[in-house]
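dumping this here so i dont lose it
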């Protein structure tokens, strides 16, 4: 049974290559399936026609000839002649139905298959091939009317007992129902598979969007078209930078550099997620984090400080063997910022303002293996964290500033 199932699957997939779009592949599978099923069906009715030989001889000949012709459909698909395969199958099927209808007469209802062929054209051809759909469908309808008129006036070609025509009608009805069921089932499964794939892709897109933007901002971006820009009076910004990374990277292979940065920043991602902070961006070997945006929180400054301690600890303990030689500087400042989304393509959620510049200066004027903070951060956290004594330093673009090194939580 497993062997037959595998053989059936292989037959359906004749002509389908790895680079073929799934939307096109489903039409090829359906054409292959119909060519095999209709061919097997015609072969299977031969024993029931033999008792009426020679009256049934031409229908028997058709039942032998056309299934062999339809093997050419599989060959055409194998060669990549997809459109020709469909057209060949459509018109040879019409010919088979017309020949059998003229033999068996109107009472057999065999010409009803022409109506089915007309409808099935919309299922076996992709929408972009509307001209072929129209031609096949209209051809089948015209032939149906022509055969109906001819048989009404002339009757069947062959002379046979009434039970022969009754048998023909029974065969037609059974085959008609089976084909309708097969095509409906195939398209039902294809439709639901497409819907499932669409849902999976939608979830991937949502996940990707949430990796780029905070959930609140992502929702606003999807529902509104205006520029997203918010001013926040209370936010805390952190910058972390790997000391002498440029010098270290000159002695390493590019793949190794990227791998190390990935290890370090992935660990930082885990840390900021545990503190419910927002990763803003990475700039080379620098890592930017914020809290208090896009949604305000009372403990934004404390949360960033705890995150900084964990980041420092992870580097000291060694995220990987190769990262043990790395040292980082961390700078933190708290104050008002403007946050928003910029760009139409490859857009990012970013921060602007003097507070961002000050946080960056805290990092660049800091010391390796330490957390350098501004006076504003010290004032907010002095009752909860321990600090080294204050220092007065000249900061580019800011003048003299009072700063501190944060040590640990009390």
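and the seq i came up w/
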């Amino acid at each position: 049974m497993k062997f037959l199932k595998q053989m059936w699957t292989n037959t359906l997939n004749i002509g389908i290559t790895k680079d073929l779009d799934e939307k096109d592949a489903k039409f090829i599978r359906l054409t292959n399936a119909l060519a095999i099923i209709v061919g097997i069906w015609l072969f299977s009715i031969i024993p029931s026609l033999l008792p009426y030989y020679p009256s049934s001889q031409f229908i028997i000949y058709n039942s032998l000839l056309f299934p062999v012709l339809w093997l050419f459909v599989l060959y055409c698909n194998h060669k990549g002649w997809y459109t020709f395969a469909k057209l060949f199958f459509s018109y040879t099927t019409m010919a088979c139905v017309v020949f059998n209808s003229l033999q068996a007469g109107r009472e057999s209802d065999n010409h009803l298959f022409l109506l089915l062929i007309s409808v099935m054209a919309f299922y076996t051809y992709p929408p972009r091939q509307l001209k072929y759909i129209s031609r096949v469908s209209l051809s089948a309808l015209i032939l149906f009317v022509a055969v109906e008129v001819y048989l009404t006036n002339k009757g069947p070609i062959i002379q046979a007992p009434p039970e022969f025509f009754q048998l023909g009608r029974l065969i037609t009805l059974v085959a008609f129902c089976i084909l309708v069921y097969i095509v409906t089932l195939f398209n039902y499964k294809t439709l639901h598979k497409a819907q499932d794939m669409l849902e999976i892709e939608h979830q991937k897109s949502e996940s990707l969007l949430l990796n780029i933007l905070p959930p609140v901002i992502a929702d606003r971006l999807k529902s509104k078209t205006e520029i997203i820009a918010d001013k926040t009076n209370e936010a805390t910004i952190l910058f972390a930078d790997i000391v002498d990374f440029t010098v270290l990277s000159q002695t390493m292979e590019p793949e190794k550099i990227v791998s190390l940065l990935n290890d370090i920043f992935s660990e930082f991602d885990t840390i900021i997620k545990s503190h419910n902070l927002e990763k803003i961006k990475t700039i080379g070997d620098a890592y930017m984090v914020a809290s208090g945006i896009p949604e305000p929180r009372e403990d934004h400054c404390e949360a960033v400080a705890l995150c900084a301690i964990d980041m420092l600890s992870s580097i000291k303990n060694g995220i990987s063997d190769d990262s043990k030689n790395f040292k980082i500087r961390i700078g933190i400042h708290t104050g008002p910022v403007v946050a928003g989304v910029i760009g139409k393509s490859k857009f990012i959620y970013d921060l602007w303002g003097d507070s961002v510049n000050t946080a960056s200066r805290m990092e660049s004027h800091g010391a390796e293996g330490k957390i350098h903070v501004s006076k504003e951060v010290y004032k907010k956290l002095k009752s909860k964290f321990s600090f080294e004594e204050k220092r007065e330093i000249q900061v580019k673009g800011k003048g003299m500033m009072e700063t501190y090194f944060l040590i640990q939580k009390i």
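The first strand starts at residue 229 and ends at 242.
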